[in-house]
Amino acid sequence: MSQYKIEAGTGQHIGDRKEQQDRVGLFAAPHAPGYMMAVLADGMGGKSGGAMAAEQVIRTAKHLFDEFSPDNDVKALLENIVTEAHTVIKLTGVSAEKEPHSTFVALVITPQKQAIWAHAGDSRLYRFSGPNFADRTIDHSYVEKLVSEGKITSDEAKTHRMSNILVNVLGSSTTPPYITFGQHDDLKAGDSFLLCSDGLWHYFTDVELSVAIAANTPRQASELLIRKARERGTDHGDNCTFAIVKLVTPPAEVKNYVVEKMRRAV
């Protein structure tokens, strides 16, 4: 039976903005042992509206995950987080006379060796297998639509004049957000995940991200990625926020204990 332990960490830098409007969190489920969640939100909206929207996403995620039990469905949980946060953000915007919006990306690791994720907007989840890039979410953005239609390349999308236009966010007063789900089963040591705002992924290739995360602990990778993002941002960097989740081989004494425990059970 494949054994692993979870190592996780977060990183954040304000960049060259006046305010940090990103939020990120790592949570355990009090009533569901073995479940963990990483969630990230990139807020948008002037006069602190974006920060308020992103904060609401994180608060909602923590509140609902605190109530989560193994009998519940993970995808339903993620959908409820988006629905509830969207509603509160809209109401808050009306009362505060602001127009707050937020992206959303979240990952849940289960004791059944499953990774289940969901996103809305252009905050991304990357999945890596060892040092290799395996998968990532597709942005809900105007330029990603152009890429899918073959009108521009992925590289051109990064510098397109409409690269900041999103077609799906939480808090919109016109259309409710939709969610794109992803899942990977049979997790094993060596698998890893990165959740990040566009203030990070904008400056890196998929290969660069996979190598940085595979070769370092979450803390070391965080320091490296922030440093490189700042260098490449050249005084125009956005808020940079991310969470790293790595599945690593447990120490030998832990594995030996598991084997001995199994022998005694037999």
Which tags fit this structure?
single chain; alpha+beta; 26% strand; 266 residues; globular
State the gist of this model.
By secondary structure, this protein is of the alpha+beta class. It is built from eight helices and eleven strands. Mean pLDDT is 91; it is low at 257-262.
Describe it for me?
By secondary structure, this protein is α+β, with helices and mostly antiparallel strands. Helix content is 36%, strand content 26%. The protein has helices at residues 49-66, 74-96, 142-148, 154-159, 198-201, 206-214, 218-233, 252-265, and strands spanning 5-13, 22-28, 36-44, 101-102, 104-109, 115-120, 124-129, 132-136, 180-184, 191-196, 240-248. Strands 2, 3, 4, 5, 6 and 9 form a six-stranded antiparallel sheet that branches. A five-stranded antiparallel sheet has the order 1-11-10-7-8. Strand 2 and strand 3 form a beta hairpin. Helix 1 (49-66) runs antiparallel to helix 2 (74-96). The radius of gyration is 19 Å and the shape is globular. The protein starts with a strand and ends with a helix. Residues 257-262 have low confidence and may be disordered.
